[in-house]
Amino acid sequence: MAFHLFRSYEATHIPGHKEQTADAPYVTYAPEYVYIPAFDGRGNPLNNTLKVGDAVEKGSLLGTRAPDDFPIYSSVSGTIEAIEPILTAGGRTQKVFCIHNDKKDEWTLAKPLPSWEEATNEQILAAMKSSGVIGMGGAGFPTYRKYNSGKPVDVLIINAIECEPFLTTDYVYGAEMAEYVWKALPYLLKVTGAKRVAFCTKKDKPALLEAYRVNHEKYPDIPVELYATADKYPMGYERNLVTLVTKKEYMNIPIEAQAIVDNIYTFILLGRYFTEGKTPDLRCITVAGEVKEPKNVLTPYGVAADDLIALAGGETIEKGKYINGGPLNGNCLASSHFATLMQSNGVLVMKANAFRAEPCWHCGDCCKQCPMDLQPVQIQMALKRNDLERMKALHAERCCGCGLCSFVCPARIDVSRNVQEAKAKVLMAMKEGK
Amino acid sequence: METVIETAPQLRTKVSLTQKMFEFFGCLVALWIYAIVFYSIKGTAEYNGLNAFVNGLAGILFADFADVLYHLPVLWKKDTVGNRWKEYGYRILHSYSFVTGLLVALLCTISLPWWQVGISAFVGTFFFKLLFGGFGHNIFNPAIIGRIFAQLVFSSGMNAYKSDSAFVETGASLTASNGTSGFQGLIGSHFDFGKVFLGAYYGALGETYLLLLLVICVYLCVREIIDWRVPVFYIGSLYLAFLLMFFAMKDGTYAFADAFKYTAIGGIFFGGILCLTDPVTSPTARSGRIIFALGSAFITILLRLFTASPEGVAYSILIMNFLTPLIDKVVKGRTRNNLVPTIVVCVLFLAVLAVGLTFGLQHTIQADGRFAA
Ligand code: SF4
Ligand code: SF4
């Protein structure tokens, strides 16, 4: 990283712990049951749902999300045995479809798109919506919404960085399926009018670099450039990638910098739907941390986490925490019996930190790490004094919630939580001011 | 498995504040050991290695005694959770007063009796750290307060070694307490580079061992316990200012060496590396720290050249500690918007050089190393 005299932000190397699962091939697993939420991300019930006792196949429509009829599909074939509440990966206890898996893998296929030259923009956008693909990076936001904003797009960014420690799903499974990315790209370039594509990965991920090389040779007409970054955190942040590729900064969403960023697996699922009519069904999940045999598992989405942990040989510690996602952005769950979501990419068992916070000693380490160039410690002090003017002057509203300030704080303070509290206050004041 | 829930991020860095504090303390102990060895070999009957050892110990114990007193209520207050004695011990240890105490001892001269060192450490810790709210809440560097307290209240003890004939014979009784002459006359030929680097002259207990200080500085910067910007800008700007001064005095090529010696004595290195860098009392942003270091350099050079005060470094640190919230205000916003900090840094840097240059133009250097108007 460049040398900065004044500016704080420096990405750092965070021990990846990837060796646990990076070199072994993934295993496939067919669970007895899968649990798919009968609610959307905001907690509203789905419309047009199937009933208990209905038979489903892979790709059967289970229901649609309320405002825009976004479809939710089944990931296995079998029968809906119940619709009852269980803990889901987001931390909420919600009603889910409990689907008994008959392991026959029968498909209800959608009609694939015609070749990209023939397909119209309307057809492509409609297909993106009916594919049921959501952002696989973690947010779970329907992908098509990024593409029908009507704003000009210059570049599509494929995020294959996977900088979260422990997680290796993109590395082992994304690399294998990478050809679908190139199958999806012509459609996406056509519908957005983007002129170039950036394939971003880390220098130390040979499988992904190789996947890029092979496919780039096979499809020389698609303008994909390779961006190989150092093994630093948080290179995989949307903001960092957009700045890396476009040299621009944005306030809220990447489209402001004329860029669309998506996880590599999102592109894969789109490519699969465009060319084969298959809706999302399988998800590769890293099961790692304090388990006997850490591994990557290719499984229908909606699998319960305790099934995966049992598959990995069970926990090796007496007291600890269950985490959905990576150790930096993931959240803790109260029990291991929770339903993973379509975008879940990891199930981890970790020792508790059990830190006792000490007073802030103003070391400034948190300023050093902040990818938004904020001064978390100063924002925190302003929050304590409830000094709104100062919070505004320090741009608390720009915090992207990455949690890095809490990660580095040697005094073990939950800095990022404080900054986000300040952010909420500033945003509220801005709204009222308007 | 018993399940625990914690706030994100689930993974935290391994480096803890306690570890950083102990590493810093380890560096101070290295200086202390060097001092003990030095005074065992070169000391006199009255001021020997044992004195150095006892002074350091007294600083540590008295400073921690302040904590022992201050945290007493933990033992009976109702809201104490868990085992009272354990909590009491935790609070005493995690106030890190032993660091303050040893720093005070290293900042004082060997001729100060151990109980005076102890009282200075106690005053600094109790009144300027604990009463401000404890570790992390103090505005002034408690060690510097202790040092200044010793100078003001126990000045006879601080200066006693100067009347000891053994010290006077070495011809270099100087630095910290060289009140009236203001460090002049120290750059003559009797004062060679070897002495400067190994610290083979008498000053405050820990401040003279330049070579060891430089090693410690590199270590602390690499381990990111202190910010390298502070010592580099503080010491660097002072050196450049002294260089200009000696050039203006027509010192010729000796200017480089003389400016170096003039920087090396009088606690500039010790203060810049171990006191000015105390995170609690300095700004948090990098640009703020550079402003902080240059501001301190400006005050140091003013005090040293124009008031003949031996306490230039200590007072400059205190004044800048006081200005820290102001500097934090100047460096508002995001750390990539640097216009205001850049201007302030440039102005301060030029100001430091200007002071050196002005003084140099107004004075000449005499054969014995003293300055004449
Ligand atoms: S959580 Fe916010 S304040 Fe903290 S490092 Fe990330 S962006 Fe900066
Ligand atoms: S990293 Fe923690 S201790 Fe250091 S300045 Fe930030 S909040 Fe304070």
Task: Give an account of the 3D structure.
The complex is a heterodimer of chains A (434) and B (373). Chain A is an alpha/beta fold and 434 residues long. Chain A folds into 3 domains: 18-106 and 281-350, no CATH class; 121-276, NADH-ubiquinone oxidoreductase 51kDa subunit (Rossmann fold), CATH 3.40.50.11540; 356-431, no CATH class. Chain A has helices spanning 121-130, 144-147, 169-174, 179-192, 206-218, 238-246, 264-276, 305-311, 365-369, 376-385, 388-393, 404-408, 415-433, and strands at 27-28, 33-37, 55-56, 61-64, 71-73, 78-87, 93-101, 155-160, 196-202, 224-229, 259-263, 282-289, 295-300, 319-324, 331-333, 346-350. A 6-stranded mixed beta sheet of chain A has the order 1-13-12-16-14-15. In chain A, strands 2-7-6-3 form a 4-stranded antiparallel beta sheet, with no helix packed on it. In chain A, strand 9, helix 5 (206-218) and strand 10 (224-229) form a beta-alpha-beta unit. In chain A, helix 1 (121-130) packs across helix 4 (179-192) and helix 4 packs across helix 7 (264-276). The radius of gyration of chain A is 22 Å and the shape is globular. The two termini of chain A are 40 Å apart. Chain B is mostly helical. Chain B folds into 2 domains: 16-162, no CATH class; 179-191 and 215-368, no CATH class. Helices cover 62% and strands 2% of the residues of chain B. Chain B is built from 16 helices and 3 strands. A two-stranded antiparallel ribbon of chain B has the order 2-3. In chain B, helix 1 packs antiparallel against helix 2 (49-70), helix 1 (17-42) packs antiparallel against helix 10 (210-222) and helix 11 (229-248) packs antiparallel against helix 13. Chain B is globular and about 75 Å long. Chains A and B meet through strand 14, strand 15, strand 16, helix 9 and helix 12 of A and strand 1, helix 1 and helix 14 of B. Bound molecules: iron/sulfur cluster (2 copies). One iron/sulfur cluster (SF4) binds next to helix 12 and helix 13 of chain A. The site of one iron/sulfur cluster has 15 residues of chain A, from helix 12 and helix 13.
